Amino acid sequence: MFLRKLLNSAAMREQLAIIDIGSNTVRLVVYGGPPRSPTVLLNEKVTARLGRGLGETGRLSGKAMKAALAALARFATLLRVMGVTDVETVATAAVRDATNGPKFLEAVAALGLRPRLLSGEEEAITSAMGVIAAFPGARGVVADLGGGSLELIVCDGDRCEHGITTPFGTLRLAAMRSHGPTSFAAAVRGTLREANWQDGRDLPLYLVGGSWRALARVAMFEMNWPLDDPHGFELAPDVALNLCQRLAKGKPLERMPRLAGSRLATLPDAAALLAVLLREIAPSSLVFSAWGLREGLLYGRLDPATQAQSPIVAGIAAFAEAMGAPASIGTMVAGWTAAASAGDGPGREPLRLGATMMSLAAMRIEPNLRAEESAGWALRKRWIGIDDAGRGLLAMAALANTGRTTIPEGLARLAPAEDLREAVTWGLAARLCRKFSGCAAQSLSNSALLREDGKLVLAVRDPLHPLYSEGIEKDLRQLAEWLGLQPEARLLPAGADLS
Fold it and tell me: 121-295 — its CATH code?
């Protein structure tokens, strides 16, 4: 049953497009791949700045509408020639707040698109659903910062409630801050209190939006963090507050990460806003998310059974399949090696299965590139459904799959030593299995890896005894010694009980 669900999640879906008409950018994203862990096939944006000047005039400017409609005309044409017919178009704060917003939407519809205007609450809920999709079981507050607004909403496992929208978008913050930091902080606090916002104390604060991720990149750069993708990066509130206070003053950074000029320009304002939110909400931690509104729209289209699938398993399964390592084989190898593991605790089984499938995929690349490249997959490809510690475990298992058991310093910063040692076990066990069996179903079904009375036993039925060679003896010994066990080969007659 689990295998069937896994294979279904790895199947390629019909291409689907989301057009997001935001206050700062107009963006097209085309998705494919497994529904629970979609792959971005095309990502294009135009900075139209529909929300610029909206606070003063109440209208979308002619220049901004012209830029946005030109981009949308290109998107509509591109989707038509690509043959993508499943298209969802949504508009948010700027169009929602503008007096000429309805007229703009009529022009969008004339391009053959079917725009849907999201209310502030719908925008907040959809963004939060994107976070829940990326971090299954997420419980805390989602803060989605866009060009025209900041949405706050409580998420609790699979539910979202008490969503509010505020006017603190990045295009508006500079004008609000021009009256001084005291006045700005009072305005933010007043808006939260007027909305009766009292949620999030001692819970994670999930941050969605490009300006938040730019702030995360600065923190990661200053910390010399082993990873470079801010998705899933976690920051302590006191560290974040110190960083925000420095950035809000607008002083040049002593060490400059690679950021777009537009993001650098919004950093002081976004930092000043976050500093107030940290004081008012008092979260337990900050978690940065690359998933938000668009991914929430995708997640909301899924049936409950697909929503319940593990996104990390679905993502790695599809990746391994594309590399020529079928998910069905990875599942069999994970079952064969289970006895070596210390046990799959909550949330651990998907990681071990993912690490096994990634180990098999790594065998499709050249031996001299295998260790570094497969560890790079773990650390730098955008996986959904794991945190930075999980990335560290995947990378350590990838290294152990090539025989390396020394834990690199960078990985030691990501995950506890005990967990990394367990990841070494996953990699060594996958290495033993693939080298012994060739990952052939007949080999796996006529052999077993067992733990018995301080021993690690490799049991093999006849006529497969020749598979146990001097090289396999060495790999069995390495795994057994790593586990503190004695290795033993047990060559059995045909049809014998493997247990």
Answer: 3.30.420.150
